[in-house]
Amino acid sequence: MSERSRHRFWVTMAVVAGLSLGVSSVPAQVPPSNKDQLKCQTGTTKTLTKFVKSKAQCAQKCLNKARKTSGPYTGCVPPGYTDPATNDCIFDPQKGAEAKASGKIEKGCAADCPECYAGPPSFCLDSEFLVASLEEVIDAVGVEIYCLEVAGTSPTKEEAKCEDTVAKSFVKFLGSKAKCYQKCVKNEFKGKTPANSCTAGSPADVATQKCITKAETKAVESIDKVCVAVPGNPSCYTLAASGAEWVALAEQAVDVTVPGLYCGSPSGAFLD
User: Fold this and answer.
1) What CA–CA distances, in Å, run from 241 to 2, 27, 124, 165?
2) Per-residue confidence (pLDDT) for residue 32, from 0 to 100
3) Which site among 30, 112, 149, 207 is 20 to 30 Å from 264 CA-CA?
4) What is the pTM of this model?
5) CA 29 to chain centre
6) CB 75 within 8 A of CB 81
7) Where are the beta strands (DSSP E) in the chain?
């Protein structure tokens, strides 16, 4: 295995393991038991994808400002995000992205917490764990996307455009694919699609397949347009170098995560 392949393998595994939200064995993906649990699970999915977007925007704003002076970039990168405005944007206990996401999850699951969310830790009562698990993955991917700034190097105009497009397309694809599954689960719950039609990674529902394919195509095209066709790929892009590679990484992460969010196994499916 080449050094590049080895690097890609370990980073990919780290992403997948993190996005699986600490699942020791993948829980059974089944429709929720009632409307309140459906609201909890679909709401949690929506909130987490919104959190990914919000945190990415916090970091992006910091990087845009730092690029104007050719750095330094240390305040814009994890884990500390030491730039004051960026730190508040993410960590403020009332208005930060973390706090907003945690509060919304707990509120949405207050009526009925699915058994597999009960913990420990309880995703319904201690949603900070859930948000923090996803956050580790965002940080790991962000470091790879903005590898030049992380190394203290200012990107060229083309490289910066590539980095920004990869970040936006990656985040948008995560949300789009999650939404495809969310709609499928709702239809399955209502009896509009047969049971087991929404299995992550290999959904039998044709509409869901088309939904995912459409999201894939858009993401790949948007990245390749500015990273490959120009070209604009930074030399430190060893994790992925094309739209297809970035999308494949995001795709695998979503497929591992979905069963943990739309789970039906007993309490205790998640690690402590």
Assistant:
1) 16, 33, 38, 13
2) 80
3) 207
4) 0.87
5) 19
6) yes
7) none
